[in-house]
Every structure is written in C-alpha cells, then in structure tokens.
Write a structure and sequence with these properties.
single chain, mainly alpha, 11 helices, 70% helix, globular
Length: 207
C-alpha cells in the first residue's frame, strides 16, 4: 500500500515472476532429482520399461534429467580403481580447461543448444566455483574417503549398494569437470545429490 494503491496486482506479478521463474525452477529440478533413486531401483530389478517411463517423465519435468540415461551404463559393480580413475580424469579435465575447449568448439560449429549458449553468455550463472567451494570440496573429500575405505575392504557388502556409490562418484565428476561453469556444475552434479544421505549412512556404518 505504501508504494502503490494497486498492491494486489503488484503482488500477483511478484508471484508470477519470483515463484514461477525462480522458485519453480528449483522445485522442478528437485523433483527430477528425486526420481533418480526409483530409476536406479527399476534398473536393479531389471525393469527397463519402468525406468524409461520415469526417465521420460523426469526429463519433461526438468531438462537436466536427460543425463540420467547414464544410469544404464553404471548400474553394475565397478572396480574401485576405475572409480578413482574417473575422479582423476575429471580433475585433469578441470585443470586443462577441457570443458571450456569443447564449449567453444561446439559453439564455433553451431552445435550448442540455445539454452546452453544463453547460460554461457550470462556471467551470473557461469562463474568459476573453484575446487575449494564448500560443496565442491566437501564432495571431493567425501568421494575419496569413501573409495579409500571401500578399496581397503575390497568388496561391496550386502549393505552397500554399488549403484549408489557409482551415482555419487559420477556426481562428483560432474562437479569437478564443470566447476569453471557454475550453473552447469551444480545442475549436473546436483541432479545426483539425492544419493548423498545414503552415502553418509554408508560412511557411518564403516566406523
């Protein structure tokens, strides 16, 4: 009322702008992320039909979920050394700016999707996060600790699900490889954050 006599109209515009264009995006991303666990479950009981149904639905909810197709290739026990190698490769990608190289390459050939190109041109979203960003650093430390412990045990116990381990390491790899492009790092890695509470329970069970 202080700033406008049409405060109800202004409030509706506020809702349409702030909620739909900002909070609603996070809600959709969270919902798509929450569907990662059911997708992995259906893969592990060999029901690829239901996996694909959930995959399509989650991709329609939020575009980032298209990367969930990778679950098809990591739904199996992987040797710890290969998971370590994945982390080291992502560190090399980050160190030698390989992600930026491919972004530029695809852009030069007109192969970048319009939405990706839009984000890349918006510095607010594509800031370099640094490996010492609290979330990035925490996830790197957690991933290496987890693999060191599993490597010492040299087996997956019945209480440790290989799919959950693989998803978390994949999340960390995305976080590192895209770390110079803030929104891409946190959107891709964040899509798989849903397994982190389970990873914490695994770590607690080790001690």
């Amino acid at each position: 009322k202080i700033f406008s006599e049409y405060y109800l109209i202004a409030f509706l515009f506020y809702l349409s702008h702030e909620v739909i264009f900002h909070e609603w995006i996070q809600i959709r991303a969270g919902l798509a992320s929450a569907m990662v666990l059911p997708m992995m479950y259906y893969l592990q009981i060999d029901n690829k039909k239901k996996f694909m149904i959930l995959y399509i639905i989650s991709s329609l909810i939020h575009y980032v979920s298209v990367i969930s197709i990778i679950l098809l290739w990591i739904d199996r026990p992987l040797k710890i050394k290969w998971l370590f190698m994945g982390l080291f490769i992502s560190l090399l990608i980050y160190q030698f700016k390989i992600t930026g190289f491919f972004f530029n390459l695809f852009d030069n050939y007109g192969l970048l999707p319009p939405l990706v190109k839009l984000y890349l041109n918006y510095e607010l979203y594509t800031y370099p996060a640094s490996l010492f960003h609290p979330k990035t650093f925490q996830q790197i430390v957690t991933s290496f600790l987890l693999l060191f412990i599993l490597n010492g045990r040299r087996y997956y116990s019945k209480n440790i699900n290989h799919g959950i381990i693989n998803i978390y390491i994949l999340s960390t790899m995305f976080q590192i490889a895209f770390n110079d492009f803030g929104i891409f790092a946190f959107r891709t890695a964040g899509h798989f954050y849903v397994v982190e509470p389970l990873i914490i329970t695994y770590l607690i069970s080790f001690f």
